[in-house]
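Hi V.,

Quick status before I head out on leave. The structure for the redesign project is tokenized and pasted below; the design run finished overnight.
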């Protein structure tokens, strides 16, 4: 990391990667099975919310050239290389909360989260 400019070269790092729980993997496979052109999902981040960053999930029909692929038993999760410094080591889960089912992100790099759980800070 270049401390003077605050920039980094993402290719300098050895990534731990992301993991999928069996529940998250099953849901991604279910989504992909419902649409023939769907390959999986992409997890990225954007600046938002009161804590700094928010997770963004999109469906993938064609991966971007800078995406890294993490796969578990046929469930495919793509992550843009630029997001890795913020979410490397994250476990992606799929849980039921009351009547809702949602993806949850267990991110070891998140130092704090907002009260509503929509954003995180590193």
């Amino acid at each position: 990391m270049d401390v003077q400019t605050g920039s980094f070269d993402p290719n300098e790092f050895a990534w731990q990667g992301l993991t999928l729980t069996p529940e998250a993997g099953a849901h991604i496979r279910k989504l992909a099975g419902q649409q023939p052109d769907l390959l999986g999902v992409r997890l990225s981040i954007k600046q938002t919310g009161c804590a700094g960053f928010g997770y963004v999930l999109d469906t993938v029909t064609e991966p971007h050239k800078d995406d890294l692929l993490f796969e578990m038993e046929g469930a495919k999760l793509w992550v843009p290389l630029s997001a890795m410094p913020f979410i490397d080591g994250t476990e992606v889960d799929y849980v039921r909360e009351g009547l809702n089912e949602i993806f949850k992100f267990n991110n070891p790099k998140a130092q704090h989260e907002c009260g509503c759980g929509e954003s995180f800070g590193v």
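Above is the designed sequence. The chain has two helices and nine strands.

G. will cover questions while I'm gone.

Best,
W.
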